[in-house]
Design a protein that fits this description.
The protein is elongated and about 40 Å long. By secondary structure, the protein is mainly alpha-helical. It has three helices and no strands. The chain is 84% helix and 0% strand. The chain has one domain. 4% of the residues are buried.
Length: 67
């Protein structure tokens, strides 16, 4: 099983999410977003999938506490 340093993984997601949002803001039109922001979008979704693979036990524990 992969180890999860949750604060590090959270910050990686935060940085990649901000990069994606900045790209979307700069390129207003859907055609431009598809052309110029594909790398940022793919990087974010890959990191998000990795976060769930590494840190899902923390995520599920957090959800269980609030039920």
């Amino acid at each position: 099983m992969l180890d999860c340093n949750r604060k590090v993984e959270d910050n990686i997601l935060k940085i990649l999410r901000q990069r994606r949002q900045d790209c979307y803001f700069f390129h207003h039109y859907p055609a431009e977003i598809d052309k110029y922001c594909q790398k940022e979008t793919n990087d974010y979704y890959t990191a998000e999938a990795n976060w769930f693979a590494k840190c899902k036990q923390f995520y599920l524990f957090h959800i269980a506490q609030h039920v």
